[in-house]
Every structure is written in C-alpha cells, then in structure tokens.
Specification:
This protein is α/β, with parallel strands linked by helices. The protein folds into six domains: 5-210 and 510-545, 3-Layer(aba) Sandwich (Rossmann fold); 223-343, hef helicase domain (phosphoenolpyruvate carboxylase, domain 3, Up-down Bundle); 348-480, 3-Layer(aba) Sandwich (Rossmann fold), CATH 3.40.50.300; 649-795, Rossmann fold (3-Layer(aba) Sandwich), CATH 3.40.50.10130; 797-868, no CATH class; 879-928, 5' to 3' exonuclease, C-terminal subdomain (DNA polymerase, domain 1, Orthogonal Bundle), CATH 1.10.150.20. It is built from 37 helices and 23 strands. The strands form four sheets. A seven-stranded parallel β-sheet has the order 4-5-3-6-7-2-8, with helices on both faces. Helix 4 links the parallel strand 4 and strand 5 (115-118). Helix 9 runs antiparallel to helix 10 (279-301), helix 17 (457-464) packs across helix 18 (484-510) and helix 22 packs parallel to helix 31 (830-842). The protein is globular.
C-alpha cells in the first residue's frame, strides 16, 4: 500500500496532478523528442499532456496549442486546463476556439492567449487565411492523434506547424493509432514524431491504476417479422449478383459481401473505360446490390428504426439529384417496405435487451451510470423513449450538430450541457451516436452497451474506454445471430490484436535518441508524498523498484465472456489472492515475442546500435546578392530556356524559376480543402479573398476555376456548364478550367461522347484551356508552377513589350499590373531584359509577338477586355438595392455608362422598365451618398 503523492511544478496548481511513475516516464520522453504517446483509455494521457505543456511554457515560453476532434472534447480540455495550469497573465490566457466563433473574434482571442484549445479545421483555416501565426507556438498537442492521416485537418495542422513554428515540439496522444504498420507510420510522419512511447494496461507500472473491465458478448435472436421483411430483398440481391456473375464482373460464389461488391465495382469501372456497352447497366445493378446489402444488414442486425432512417437518407439523396438512389427508392418493393416500417413498432430484440441491461444495472446500483452507443439517430430516439417509459431511468440524448432527415441536431452548447448533466448525475443514462465515442471523461460510467459491434478497432477501443476509467466497469456488446454483427465483432478483435504488433514494429524501427537525459528533463518537477518533497525522477525510479517483483503478474485488464459464461478470473482479485498462482518467470516468457535469447547464439558478437538516419540538405545563402539583380537573372534564364525548349526535348524548361517568389489569391471557400495548406507549405504567399468568379487568381491575368469530376458532370447535366464557362472567359485575359480527380469517363448517367463533346466545346469553340489533375496535391503543384512561370515570363519582357500588352492608353492608366508583377520591382536592367526578349523573338515566336504588336486591332484580347468591363458594370448595378440582373441590363442599355446614370434624375430613372419612384429615389440616395 503506498501513500498518495502529487506533482509539484511552477506552472501546475497544488495537488491537481497525482504522481504516477508511468506518467512521469512518459513526460520525460515527450519532452525529449516529438513523441506519439499510446496508452490505454482511462489511464491518464491527459495529465501527461498537462505536465508537458506546463514544462514547455516554463522553460521555453511562447504558446501551447491543443487540437481535439470534437467540440465536446475541446470544452473538456478547456475546463481542465483552467483548473490545473497556473495563469501568469489574464483570465484570457487560456481560451477555446471552435467554428461557431467568427474568425475575427478568434483572431483576437489568439492574440491574447497563452494556451489555446481548438478543433483542427479551425486552426487550419485561420492559418491559411493568415489571421493567426504559428511561429511562437512551442508545443502542439494532437489529442486523438489517430485522426492525423490523409487529408484530415489534424494532419494538415501538423504540416503547417512544422513549416512555420520557430521552436516546434509535437506530442500526439491516442489509445488506438491504427491496426497496420503503415497507419501508425503515417500518423508519425504527418506529425513529425520521432519516437513512440507505448505501454499496455498489464505493465507493472500501470496495473495498480488500471480498473478492471469485463466485456460481455450478448447474442440476440432476430425477430421472425424482420426476417420476413428481409426475405424478398435477399432474393432480389441474389438475382442482381447472379446477373453480375454471368456478365463476368462478380467472380465470387456464395453470399455477397460488401468487400466483394466493391471489388466488382472496380471491374465494372475498368470495363467502362474500355468502352464496353454492358458495363453501364452493370454499374447500376452493382449500386443497387450494395444498397440492398446495406438495407438487409440494418433490418437484421439493427431493426426497424435504423432501416427506416437508412431509407430516408436514400430518399433524400434521390430528391437531391442522385438518379441511382431515386430509382432504388421508387421501386415498388422499397416504397412498400418504407411505408410498412413507418407504421411498424420496433421489432428487434436488441432494443428490449438494451433497456433491460441498463435497468438491471440501475437496480443493483442506483448511483451508477450507463452509456449506450448506437449508429443511427432513430435507434437513439427509440432507446431514449423506451427508457423514459420505464420510469426508472433518466436518459440523455447525445448526437451531432447537423439536423437532417427530420432529426434535430444538438448545438455545441447543448452537447456540453448534456454531458455536464450526466457528470453531475442529473441524468444517469447517456444514449449517444459516434460523436460521444472519443476522449470524453465520465468518471462514474459503470456500464457501456454497444447496440451493435463496430468493425473498426479504433472505434471499439474508444467506445469501450468510456467505462472502467476510475473503477471496474462492464461492457455489453449486442450481437444479432447469423448476421454481419458476428463478422464485425471478429474483425475488430483481430485488428486490435494486430494493432499491438504494428505499434511494436514501428517503435523498434524508430529506436530511441542516444542523448536522452531524464534527470535534466524532469528537474522542474517535484513530488510531494506524506509531507516530504523529492525529485520526480527519484520517485519514478523508486516506484519501478517497488513494482519490479510484480513484473511476472501481467493479468489482462480486459476479460471477455459470452453471456451465460463465467469469466476465467475475477477482475477484482487482488495481488494477495493471486499468490500461489504465479508462474515461473523463465527468461523466454519475459522476452517480447520473436526476440532471440543470447543462449541461442554459438558465439558472442558486438551488440548493434540503432542510429537515426536523417537526410541533410545544403542551404544556399543568397542574402549577400542584390535581390533585383538575382531575380532579373532568373527571369532572363527562364526566357532563354523557353527558347531552347522549342527545339529540344527539355523536361522542365523553367527549372531555374523555383526560387522566384509568387503570390496566389484563393477564394475563402477553398480554405476547407487541402490546397491552401499545401500552397503555404511550399512557401507561396496565399491571400484569401472573396472572388466573384473562379477559385484562384494569379496576378490580374490568370483566373482558375476548379471543379471536381463530379461537379463537372453535374454542371454538364443541369445545363450550367456553358454559362459558367462564358463568365469565366469574361473574367480575365487568361482564364483556365481545372478538373480535379480521376474517373471522368467512368461517371454514371452520362455517356463518354457527351463528356468529350463538352470538352471539345470548351477548348475549341470557346478557347478555354482545360487542365486535369489527380488530386488536391497535384492541383497545388500546378498552381505553383503556373504562378512562377507567369512571373518569370513577365520578368523577361521588355518595357516596350509590356506597354504594348496594355492594349491602349485607357487600359494602361487603369491597370498597372505589369509593373507591379515584375519580381524585384520595375527597375530591371534594361539591357538584360531587351536581350531576353530579342532571344524569344529570334527563336521562332514571331507569331505570338505579332499578336501583341497588333493588339490595337479588334481581336480576341480586346473582345475579352470589353466583355469584362461590361460584366463589371453589371455587377456594380446589381449591388444596388432592388436591382436584379434584368433591371441592371436595362439600366446599362438606357444610360450606356455608370457616369450617365449618376447624373440622371428621378424622372429619367422611372423611364426604365422595372424602376418605380421609390426605387429611383433609393438608387439616387446610394449613388449620391
């Protein structure tokens, strides 16, 4: 038995953090290098985060940033930090930032704060907007770090932080980083983590603090009424799969599964690319088969409420333009089933079983609390209704913020208030969707019920971790017999087992830095125990020595049983009760699996050391060179390389342009994509504005409209494509349409010939360049290259050529863009720029130069410029009160110019159709101020 001990630190409040050896050990690792902290749920990752933040602010200063995936988790961190961190500034030094706060207010909060807790997408958007600066953030904590993969905003915040922070240190914390080595490595790579600190609940240092957790698998029989509803759907599914099998697309025998249908869909898409006529109908059949498989699964494994909600979503998708969903829902079999489901009570035994499990728990311990997880909101609502009818439970509904399909979402404030009522005991049952799975600390949740098993090991661990946090807990997993529930449960168990192996492999591969000095890293931490203050490092070493005899007693924290069976061991059994059961500690048992003992080798050999290999890059210091001269030389080289590229096979004729600084304007709606973050990471000056037309603007000449493949097809089908193209052409001298994504010619509901015809119209008839990219990263690379080439070419033109390109004195006076866009200013050496331009002309570009010299004639550039002016005038008039597009055109046709309109009186305005006396007075008041 050991006395309670507490951490003391200059930035931590007294007795706010209990001293635990494994947490102190983790703090030393996290301070020594960027670290991924992997600990089981409920064993104190958050106090480790507090200690790392406190020490970093104490020794280095700056700001601390914590990112968490949900608003509820952000609020939990915010409340905890205000209680445990000593404030050295005002009360505004610890703040929370979410998307519900206007970005201008977020900017003010950031400026005053020392510790910021935020959702990651908010930080990503504000950094890309330029409203916050990460340079002085000295510690970034990524809570629930398993999200930091792919295009998730957590991963992008990690990229941005490593790019802009002056003194970065990152700590990632999670209980479940992924089930494969590739997933774990991706998390580490995206956050720049150099080591993994991983401990299991069975570890000797952790076991005294690990509450027991019993997982009980409860098998439930499917109601005959649900089987009767599913039978015709199963026959329909088998018929569709048989047709796909006869066409050669579905190669599997037996009952179809989701993974098999995904594989079939891939074969069909390949056939569409090859031009096989039957593939289009096969694609529709495959989509219907997937919907049927989902519906059958929901009927048998979840019940009436879940199936009804699924069909409501399909119906809404059809009403929003999804022709496949519309055809599926409008089938008489589905329509009749939907009507039956709306009138039917809940038939699945899972609902009744869930209610009984909760009521039994409350009867045995009226002070206990329970959490129920269900996938669908309708299921949540049904369970809440049943519990309320029982009169013995006080349930609380906990769902996401979005309102859809007649289901009202919960605001951020409502979520926080609901959790607080649950913590305070005002309600004793929390019925939640996936929004309640991660990170939430509910100390007295004694029971967790999975309405359905989930195939993801991450979600399984997170759900299970809501109980057994401070005392022993029980988890019931409801499994419908002979349904996909059984496969999902087996998949989660297998992936969880594989996750431990993956973490171990990556951890060994990374190794440990050789210069670790825990004593130095922990010197600011003290431990107070029984009135005596000592160093945290000494406390940690003494705890390791005290618990060393228990190294062989690694009993599993999680005990799994099937309903009706007794567990193999008692989760409340003490160490004293286990004496006599202890097995012999032979060396082979203490070694990790796969490790070979020294006695297996015939001769000794020096132990190999692990060295971290780091790539070194040569940094070229150009600060001593004159900036204008340097940029001028790069521009001249760029022009010379273009000339040479006309007669050679050069891969990148502008290879020297990479150092030219560039600026790209992006529309504010593009902040939610990964493109803005990628541009900033590549050193591009990103300016966020509201663009009337297009998504990106390069200088004043180039406007780029980005469309995803699906958006492009939708624009073609609803007739908006040509109208949008004409507006884009009129918006800039150099417009460009960029189509992002793959599978353009494999889209459903449109033939390849229609797509090719649209592309031919855009490029040949309208003269609009069209570029395709694979994804957002490739789009960003293209924009960077386009911006640098634009500036490099303009830098190589002579002053006379630039003046000729202004198309007349009027444009020259109103558009000083060319002088502003020259890298280094307009004072480039005259001789170098003349030589560069002459080399361009001598190399065979006389035709292009002739267009510039003849620009005074009525040509396509003049036409575009006049069209742009006309469009701008119309936009200006449409901004007036009560003036729409039609009235704006009538005003411009009548008065010919904006100037004439401002000089008109009320009588003249009333002569225009659609303008009355009241409207005329309002217009004149606005124009004349």
């Amino acid at each position: 038995m050991f006395m309670a001990a507490f951490i003391e630190h200059p930035r931590l409040t007294a007795e706010s953090v209990e001293a635990r050896a494994y947490q102190i050990e983790a703090v030393a690792d996290c301070l020594g290098a960027p670290t991924l902290l992997v600990l089981p749920t409920a064993l104190g990752k958050t106090p480790i985060e507090w200690m790392v933040i406190a020490e970093r602010l104490h020794t280095v200063g700056g700001r601390a940033l914590i990112i968490a995936p949900t608003n509820a988790l952000v609020n939990q961190h915010f409340v905890d930090l205000k209680a445990v961190i000593k404030k050295q500034k005002s009360d505004d030094s610890i703040v929370s930032i979410t998307g519900s706060i206007d970005w201008r207010k977020r900017q003010k909060r950031w400026a005053l704060a020392e510790i910021i807790v935020a959702t990651p997408h908010v930080i990503r958007n504000d950094v890309n907007r330029g409203s916050i600066d990460l340079s002085d953030v000295t510690i970034l904590v990524a809570d629930e770090a398993h999200h930091s993969t792919g295009k998730h905003s957590s991963a992008e915040v990690g990229d941005l932080y490593l790019q802009f922070a002056d003194n970065p240190l990152i700590m990632g914390a999670t209980a479940s980083p992924g089930s494969t080595r590739e997933q774990v490595e991706e998390v580490c790579n995206r956050l720049g983590l150099k080591r993994i600190h991983s401990r299991s609940a069975e570890n000797a240092l952790l076991s005294p603090y690990a509450a027991g957790l019993q997982v009980n698998e409860v098998f439930v029989d499917v109601d005959d009424g649900l089987k009767l509803m599913a039978a015709p759907l199963q026959m329909w599914l088998e018929h569709l799969v048989d047709q796909l099998r006869r066409l050669g697309y579905h190669v599997h025998s037996g009952r179809a599964t989701s993974s098999q249908l995904n594989e079939t869909r891939g074969r069909i898409q390949g056939a569409i690319v090859k031009g096989e006529g039957l593939a289009y109908n096969a694609a529709r059949q495959c989509a219907q088969a997937q919907r049927l498989l989902n519906l059958i699964g929901y009927l048998l494994s979840q019940g009436v409420a879940a199936s009804r909600e699924y069909l409501s979503r399909v119906k809404n998708s059809g009403e929003n333009g999804d022709k496949g969903a519309s055809a599926f829902f409008n089938d008489s079999r589905i329509t009749q089933l939907f009507e039956n489901l709306k009138e039917s009570p809940e038939l699945h035994e899972k609902v009744g079983k869930t209610v009984n499990l909760v009521l039994d728990q409350l009867e045995s311990d009226p002070e206990s609390r329970a959490i129920i997880f269900a996938h669908f909101r309708d299921t949540v609502d049904e369970i809440v209704r049943r519990l309320e009818e029982s009169g013995r439970a006080k349930p609380e509904r906990f769902v996401g913020q979005t309102s859809r399909d007649g289901s009202t979402g919960m605001t951020q404030k409502a979520q926080i208030e609901g959790l607080q009522r649950f913590r305070e005991g005002k309600c004793n049952v929390l019925v939640a969707t996936s929004v309640g799975e991660e990170g939430l600390d509910v100390p007295k949740a004694d029971l967790v019920v999975f309405y359905e098993p989930v195939g993801s090991e991450i979600r399984t661990i997170q759900r299970r971790g809501r109980t057994g946090r401070h005392r022993a807990g029980t988890v019931h997993v409801l499994i419908a017999r002979d349904t996909r529930d059984e496969g999902a449960r087996a998949s989660a168990l297998f992936r969880e087992k594989r996750m431990k192996q993956a973490i171990d492999k990556v951890r060994r591969k990374m190794g440990r830095p050789a210069d670790d000095n825990p004593v130095e890293l922990l010197k600011s931490f003290k431990v107070r125990q029984n009135g005596i203050i000592g160093s945290a490092h000494a406390f940690m070493m003494s705890e390791m020595e005290r618990l060393a005899p228990e190294l062989g007693e690694q009993t599993s924290r999680v005990i799994t049983t099937v309903e009706g069976q007794l567990p193999d061991s008692n989760i409340n059994e003490t160490n004293d009760d286990k004496k006599g059961k202890k097995y012999q500690n032979v060396p082979s048992r203490l070694r990790p699996r796969g490790q070979t003992g020294l006695d297996s080798f015939p001769s000794s050999a020096p132990t190999p050391t692990i060295k971290d290999e780091q790539e070194s890059a040569d940094n070229i210091d150009d600060q001593d060179l004159d900036l204008n001269e340097n940029l001028a030389k790069m521009a001249v080289r760029a022009a010379e390389d273009i000339v040479q590229a006309l007669t050679t096979d050069a891969v990148d004729p502008l290879a020297h342009e990479a150092d030219i600084p560039c600026r790209i304007v992006i529309d504010h709606r593009e902040l939610n994509t990964s493109i803005a973050a990628t541009l900033r990471l590549q050193g591009v000056d990103v300016d966020v504005k509201t663009l009337a037309i297009g998504d990106f603007q390069i200088g004043d000449r180039v406007v780029v409209e980005r469309k995803r493949v699906r958006d492009f097809v939708d624009s073609l089908l609803d007739g908006r494509l040509l109208e949008q193209a004409h507006r884009l052409i009129g918006a800039a001298p150099r417009p460009l349409l960029l189509i992002e994504g793959g599978g353009l010619f494999t889209q459903r509901a449109v033939h390849n010939n229609a797509l090719m015809g649209a592309l031919a119209t855009l490029t040949i008839d309208l003269g609009l360049p069209v570029v395709t990219t694979r994804d957002g990263e490739e789009t960003a690379r293209f924009l960077i290259i386009a911006a640098r080439r634009e500036q490099a070419l303009l830098g190589a033109l002579t002053k006379e050529a630039r003046e000729r390109m202004k198309f007349g004195d009027e444009i020259k006076q109103s558009n000083p863009w060319f002088e502003n866009q020259i890298p280094g200013g307009s004072g480039l050496d005259e001789k170098t720029t003349i030589d560069a331009a002459e080399s361009v002309i001598d190399s065979g570009l006389q035709t292009d130069q002739k267009v510039i010299l003849d620009a005074s004639k009525e040509g396509i550039l003049d036409h575009r410029d006049k069209q742009q002016k006309q469009t701008n005038k119309l936009y200006l008039l449409e901004s007036l009160p009560n003036i729409g597009p039609t009235t704006a055109k009538r005003l411009l046709d009548h008065f010919k110019s904006i100037e004439a309109l401002t000089q008109a009186d009320e009588t003249e305005l009333c002569q225009v159709t659609g303008i009355g006396p009241a409207s005329a007075r309002t217009i004149l008041e606005v124009l004349r101020g």
